[in-house]
Design brief:
The structure is a single chain. By secondary structure, this protein is an alpha/beta fold. The chain folds into two domains: 5-237, Rossmann fold; 245-341, no CATH class. It contains 13 helices and twelve strands. It has helices spanning 47-52, 81-90, 99-102, 109-118, 125-138, 144-147, 157-169, 187-204, 215-221, 239-244, 249-263, 318-322, 332-335, and strands at residues 5-16, 19-31, 36-40, 62-71, 74-75, 92-95, 175-179, 207-212, 224-229, 232-238, 304-308, 311-314. Strands 6-7-8-3-9-10-12-11 form an eight-stranded mixed sheet. Strands 2-1-4-5 form a four-stranded antiparallel sheet, with no helix packed on it. A hairpin with a 2-residue loop joins strand 9 and strand 10 (232-238). Helix 4 (109-118) crosses helix 5 (125-138) and helix 4 runs parallel beside helix 7. The chain is globular. The chain binds adenosine-5'-triphosphate and magnesium ion (MG). Residues 47-48, 97, 179 line the site of magnesium ion.
Length: 341
């Protein structure tokens, strides 16, 4: 069955005074109906910008180079603005990154929820109020009748995140985008939000694109995952494929740093070096400067290799990485010269 959304070979850049910022370089993601698809990567890797292509909410200085964004097989990039307007209402709901800033400061939570519902339906004011109370309960707000009277600045980070989610699902969209729903929250609140989201997604049967920089969150909530680096999807597949047999050195390094954080003992591992400058990207693979197995061939653009059905990796050594045992304890010395043997 074809996926609900397929982003295919998407490429584009931001036109800025300082030059072109090449933020989207080769993005391939499939979002299957009824599943949670994760989009993971370091800050600035293009996660939010990839997602905003679906409702076409890109900043106005973004320029498309190539690619398609298919929704049920139709390219949304070719739709008229009127059609997009309808689609943004019913097709996609977004819980934006940084909810405290994204919520409207001059309306109460109740007014915002009411407006969100009444722009999609002809609910009366009273019905909208009832629906607002119900949805706040579903996102596990303890005192909904108090919260609907509050303003964004009165909410804690965790509460603001719950309200942001409630706004996105009060009229359930075909696709829900959750942008960093656990970032900036303390560990206990993160765990509560994850558990709430899991129940909500299951009980409402939602299709979700979940953006996070945290592979731990991906492991908790996602069925499939796309790993992004400098505007490229380096790897895509289902969770067990990607976590158990990663076919890309970047994914392996990310898994390794996540393990070391979660293990809580020993040295914290972080990937050496920094992502490339999007104004001045290297030829070939963007990860080559930080890769434990970079070789001469990495100066040419890597192919997108399907290592098993539905599991793809953008790496010259995808097959060899895929056949290596476990993601951890990579023997760096053995790989330093000429790629993984
Ligand atoms: N309007 C713009 N003009 C120029 N560059 C932009 C613009 N909007 C975003 N960018 C750049 O595009 C890149 C990708 O941004 P994006 O917001 O998608 O990153 P992200 O992966 O969501 O990061 P984070 O984890 O910090 O949210 C970043 O380098 C960002 O600075
Ligand atoms: Mg972002």
């Amino acid at each position: 069955m074809a996926a609900l959304v397929e982003i295919q070979n998407l490429e584009g850049y931001f036109d800025t005074i300082g030059g072109d910022v090449r933020a989207i370089n080769s993005v391939n993601v499939a979002i299957e109906e009824g599943k949670v698809t994760g989009l993971v990567g370091e800050t600035g890797s293009g996660k939010t910008m990839t997602a905003l292509n679906i409702p076409r909410l890109m900043p106005e200085n973004f320029r498309y180079v190539s690619g398609r964004v298919l929704f049920r097989g139709e390219d949304v990039l070719s739709w008229s603005e009127d059609r997009m307007e309808l689609f943004r209402g019913d097709g996609v709901g977004i819980a934006f990154q940084d909810p405290k800033a994204a919520l409207n400061p001059v309306f109460t939570v109740g007014e915002q929820l009411g407006r969100a519902l009444r722009t999609h339906t002809d609910a009366t004011k009273d019905e909208a109020r009832q629906a607002a109370l119900q949805i706040l309960e579903r996102v596990r707000i303890t005192d909904p009748s108090r919260t609907i009277r509050q303003y964004a600045h009165e909410l804690s980070g965790g509460m603001a995140q719950r309200v942001m989610v409630a706004l996105a699902v009060i009229h359930p969209p075909t696709l829900l985008i959750l942008d960093e729903p656990t970032t900036g929250l303390d560990v206990t609140v993160q765990a509560e939000i994850i558990s709430m989201l899991r129940d909500l997604v299951e009980s409402m049967g939602l299709t979700v694109l979940l953006i996070t920089h945290d592979l731990g969150v991906v492991g908790e909530l996602c069925d499939n995952v796309a790993v992004m680096y400098a505007g490229r999807t380096m790897e895509f597949g289902d969770i067990s494929q990607v976590f158990e047999k990663p076919a890309n050195p970047y994914t392996r390094e990310l898994l390794r740093s996540t393990e070391s954080v979660e293990g809580g003992v020993g040295d914290l591992y972080s990937i050496p070096g920094a992502p490339p400058d999007l104004r001045n990207l290297p030829q070939g693979c963007f990860f080559q400067d930080r890769c434990p197995s970079a070789a001469d061939v990495c100066r040419t653009v890597p192919p997108v290799v399907e290592v098993e059905p539905g599991h793809v990796s953008m790496c010259h050594f995808a097959e060899r990485y895929h056949s290596m045992p476990g993601p951890l304890h990579i023997s760096k010395g053995a790989e330093a010269e000429g790629g993984p043997e």
